Amino acid sequence: MRRLRLGVAGLGRAFMLMLPALAHHRRVELVAAFDPRREARDRFVQDFGGTAHEGFEALCADPAVEAIYLATPHQFHAGQAVAAARHGRHVLCEKPMAVTLEEANAMVAAARAAGTRLLVGHSHGQDGPILHARRLIASGRYGAVRMVTALNATDFLYRPRRREELVTAEGGGVVFSQGAHQLDIIRLLGGGMLRSLRAQALAWDPARPTEGAYAAFLQFESGAAATATYSGHGRFDSDEFLGWVGELGARKDPGAYGTARAALSGAATPEEEEALKRGRAYGAPGSAPGLPPAAPPAFHNQFGFVLASCEGADLRPTAEGVVIHADDRRWLEPTPLPPLPRAEVLDEFCAAVLDGAAPTHDGAWGLATLEACLALLRSSREGREVMLHHQVATRD
Predict the structure, then answer these.
(1) Interacting residues of 284 by C-beta distance below 8 A, sequence separation 6+
(2) Domains of the chain (ranges plus CATH)?
(3) pTM score
């Protein structure tokens, strides 16, 4: 079986979350990396061999690399994706794909001109139970989707951050980082074609000067409606609604309350907070070399409470599968676990690059989700409904 020769740009937190899948996926071979941190580059060579580059252009020019996983900070995605396409490299770009629509359009155009693939992920729209729910919807068994409800409450705002992660214009705040997940899920389940969005984004902690929460009402071209609610303030935890299974598919201790805020309280300056962030990255001083085990997760990844209300039943994705609420009974339709956490992301990318399959999460889809994120911020800023013009339909 031919394996995709993959280079990684950015060995930070996003890479750490994808590491089990990247290290052990049967169709991927990690051959190179780029990161400005010497300790991260050294650790990559120790764990994987290959080449670790000090510059992104050197990664693009590496003849061993045929595709790049772009896990750098949001504000660098556009320029790096365009450069990768210019070198003929396929790109899997972490969400959000960019910070502006102009940047996203440039990424799509560059990939089209080069004849390369551009996909956006990881997104929780790629989680197994969400895809399972979409298959049930596409089957027509339960009629059309009429309403989608999505709610998530986490401690996102109080995890250690770099300075730009608290600056909205540079892609900071919950709308770009978390809304990209939630709006992707809503678009996927509702068919993709949003018509308009009305929202309020909220920032009520002066010490974290960016949006920490939002509430949005969305309408689809089909006439279906959706609500999206998110809070990253670290008090109520919506994993309570998921049986205390966390976002990454592991059991949580409900008694471990307020741990993010408590840990952050030990950082008195922005520099100390950035040091805490670096301590969670790949190759951080004191971290042991070696790869995570190749084992399936205990549960699926999840992104809070989601309910797709169809004409004939309500479909509720969970960390175990899809609960179907029909007229006379309720049952769980289990979703088989992937062999590795987040393997679905690399499955989609490899199928597109190696097999020529048409992906759902391509550049046009990522641009449409970004448009919804930007519309949320604009609606809140201007106090009005915002119409959407770059939406694409879900590919079933």
Answers:
(1) 39, 278
(2) 4-123+341-362 (3.40.50.720), 125-285+297-339+371-387 (3.30.360.10)
(3) 0.97
